Amino acid sequence: MSFSASEFYEAGISLPASVRTDVALRLLRSVEPDDQFTADAERWLRTEAAAAYDELKADPSSEIPVEDVKARFAEKWAARS
User: Fold this and answer.
1) Do 52 and 13 share a structural domain?
2) For the chain, give me the number of helices (H) and strands (E)?
């Protein structure tokens, strides 16, 4: 039996959240990142992420509390619906 991507999504979205999480993680693990993705991620880590880390170490007062970060993500997530 073969499902289209839409059919698979519709079947999966009806599963309980814990099962969807497990299936999603298994699917992500089954996909090998391509060379371009790997190169882009490495470049980002060595430039932007490293610079942000260095800035935070130089000025710890610029730290954003984790509660604020979580709240921002929650707001953005809620706005998607």
Assistant:
1) no
2) 5, 0
CB of 18 closer than 8 Å to CB of 25: no
Burial class (CB in 10 A: 0-12, 13-18, 19+), 51: exposed
pTM above 0.85, yes or no: no
For residue 14, the SS3 value is coil
CB 63 within 8 A of CB 56: yes
Closest CA to 36 of 24, 44, 25: 44
In this structure, the answer to whether residues 58 and 81 fall within a common structural domain is yes
Give me the domain span that covers residue 18. 1-31
pLDDT in tens, 57-68: 999 999 999 999
